[in-house]
Amino acid sequence: MECILGIESSCDETAAAVVDSSLRVRSNVVASQYDLHAEYGGVVPEIASRAHLERILPVMRKALDEAGIPAGKIVAVAAGVRPGLIGSLLVGASAAKAFSWARMVPFYGVDHVAAHLFAGLLRDGDRPAPELSRMFPALGLVVSGGHTSLFRLESAVDCRLIGRTIDDAVGEAMDKAANMLGLPHPGGPNLERCAVGGDAQALRFSNPQLPNALDFSLSGLKTKLLYEVRGVPQGRGAAATFARTSADLSASRRSDLAASFQRAAIEQVIDRLSRAADLAPAPALFVGGGVVSNESLRVALAAWCAARGMTLVVPERRFCVDNAAMIAGYAHLRRRLGDAGDDLSVPTEPVSLLARGSAPKRVQ
């Protein structure tokens, strides 16, 4: 089996993985930075990039060692080149380009959003790979901290954006909701934990109607939650004052509000999927992104696909968050379709071409 080394450093995870041509993950190493950013309540770009510099080579070596594949047997190297924090992206992309140059193997600059879309194809052990030819044209959904995007997929490299958030991504909104409720970093996972046992009907949210019926909007949900927690502000701008703080919430009320917010966000996702499927039925749904590790969302997606007779291609939880296996896996998909790789001059960029709807069919 041909093996590709993948590298991911778009935000606060330094990751390297080896994936073979059957999309079996031979190794998947992730060095997290949660401890470095926790006191700031979010990722600090300069701290993130410096941590990547310290960890990138040890992580790459460990990935090769765990896979039992010497560097000389790697047929190509791939790295996420967009979107992300530029300083962080540069570390991983530079390491991958150096490996490509030194070993004289192809380099694949991968769009992080495209990699998330097809992370559900990754497999462990002897689990059979799904038959891709019967799945297209398909729907694609990325739900993460930075992206909430809906796609029509003609193939693995022909992905057309049909809907996206006009403000916050679902993961970003969940992080901010967690902060409003007084929950610690990382917000999304802690919001999910807080929601367990809560009354998801305690607070009702409206479903925003937008000019593009497939777009998402989470800002109204956040505003309603803020007013419920702290009261309607008196005054405007910096002079605004609130009657309450999150410390005034009882544990049960905090749990109810977390469950209600989570339900509203998931219902909006399912609503947009239903509209897209009604417009153009599809045999499969590919989903990816960090928020897809949320159990309530996974259950809702599985039920929705089952009701429509669609195949759900969803990643294992460890492949939902940022990881290098999805980067290597997507490079394999490009390679299968005859893509020989990218020039080493391919730039790193802060924004996904795919998620803003301007990518060519050959997604780089």
Summarize the structure.
With 364 residues, this protein is an alpha/beta fold. The chain has helices spanning 34-37, 45-67, 86-103, 112-117, 170-180, 187-195, 219-230, 251-279, 295-308, 325-336, and strands at 3-8, 13-20, 25-32, 74-82, 107-111, 138-143, 148-155, 158-164, 284-288, 311-313.
Give an overview of the whole structure.
A hairpin with a 2-residue loop joins strand 7 (148-155) and strand 8 (158-164). The chain has helices at residues 34-37, 45-67, 86-103, 112-117, 170-180, 187-195, 219-230, 251-279, 295-308, 325-336; strands spanning 3-8, 13-20, 25-32, 74-82, 107-111, 138-143, 148-155, 158-164, 284-288, 311-313. It has ten helices and ten strands. The chain is globular, with a radius of gyration of 21 Å. The protein folds into two domains: 3-124 and 319-336, Nucleotidyltransferase, domain 5, CATH 3.30.420.40; 134-315, ATPase, nucleotide binding domain (Nucleotidyltransferase, domain 5, 2-Layer Sandwich), CATH 3.30.420.40. Strands 3-2-1-4-5 form a five-stranded mixed β-sheet, with helices on both faces.
Sequence-ordered SSE layout with sheet pairings:
Blueprint: E1 3-8, E2 13-20, E3 25-32, H1 34-37, H2 45-67, E4 74-82, H3 86-103, E5 107-111, H4 112-117, E6 138-143, E7 148-155, E8 158-164, H5 170-180, H6 187-195, H7 219-230, H8 251-279, E9 284-288, H9 295-308, E10 311-313, H10 325-336
Parallel strand pairs: 1-4, 4-5, 6-9, 9-10
Antiparallel strand pairs: 1-2, 2-3, 6-7, 7-8
Helix pairs in contact: 2-3, 5-6, 5-7, 5-8, 6-8, 8-9
